[in-house]
Amino acid sequence: MLPDPAAPGLHDVMPAVLAGLGAGPTVPGLALPEARATGLLLIDGLGHAQLREHARDAPFLAGLPEHGPLPVGFPSSTPISLTTLGTGLPPGAHGTLGVRFRVDDLLLDALTWTADGKDARDQLVPEVVQPHPTAFERAVAQEIGATVVSHRAFRQSGLTRSALRGADYRGVGALGDLAAEMIEALRRPGRQLVYGYHADLDQLGHLHGPGSLAWRFQLRQLDHLVEQLVTELPADALLAVTADHGMVTVDRTHDADTDPDLLGGVALVGGDPRARLVYARPGAADDVLDAWRGVLGDDAWIRSGAEAVEQDWFGPLDHALRARVPDAVVALRGTAAVVRTEEEPLLSRLPGQHGSLTPEERYVPLLVADGR
Fold it and tell me: What is this structure's pTM?
């Protein structure tokens, strides 16, 4: 259920990239080739299990040298993993503990950086919520060019400011300009760190399920994208490909908005359908734990916040962040989910979900190719 804490994980990828650029110590168990310039492409939603199961749809990707699979942090969802990747720290250290988690008594949505449906960037300043320097800031401090290539809509998002700040941001809208911007940045003189992000595989996995025909067609497009990038790499450059999580198709749900047994004593329900963070009203924590365990039974692993911290579910915890830890940590098993049909109506209807501790959700590939 829980990866070996001594083994490499997603939080080691950027330190390994920087080491290959001559800007940091070697990461034990994850040595990447040295290069003048390194590109790192993150394909949202491409779990290691899904890539291996559908290798015939992505023969180029599946044929690249594998330096994984690597476990991502818990919960296995995008804002947690992007912050883990960008800072080189596990969730317990960087403090982004869920898709929605409590900060200063507010439930912060780390994807949209909103609280109570309102923009929270002024009230919950991203650089304060996540104060650790990013890999891009560390690269620039060592005179390495740093570029982030991602959708233009994310340029000033709270998540970008929290996890990816410090780089030259190049906004794009499609596969063509994503590839072009990454290659142009890798061709600049001197040492270069170039990060690219693509979201559509995750979107189609949510809408249709991982392994669906639409998902497989998108995977084929991404296979061609990666082949193009490798073909155009400068001879002294490297391309690494990874992901933020995998995905499962859910077929049974519990509703935290309508089930009275799941509502009692609860102040806030955060997280996402496969990894719920439950904050209890004062004095109700034990009752909430008992009720959720009684309702979910074998559909979930459930720990108190103290148990989850003790067992390193979030990785080693910065105890200054202890107030962000919920009273109940709920990781769904099998193909079950805890939805919120009133607060999250769209998300509650989606067949593809992620966030829990299963290998299908938690392990991602790390594939590497050079320009030679």
Answer: 0.96
pLDDT tens digits, one per residue of 88-123:
999 999 999 999 999 999 999 999 999 999 999 999
Residue (of 284, 337, 285) closest to 306 by Cα position: 285
Asked if the domains at 10-248+358-370 and 252-353 fall in one CATH topology, the answer is no
**CB-based contact 194:40 (threshold 8 Å):** yes
**CB of 244 closer than 8 Å to CB of 82:** yes
SS3 string, 92-134, reads HHHCCCCCEEEECCEEEECCCCEECCEECCCCCCHHHHCCCCC
Strand, coil or helix: 177: helix
Cis peptide before 15 (omega within 30 of 0): no
* 10-248+358-370 fold: Alkaline Phosphatase, subunit A (3.40.720)
Tell me the domain boundaries of the chain: 10-248+358-370, 252-353
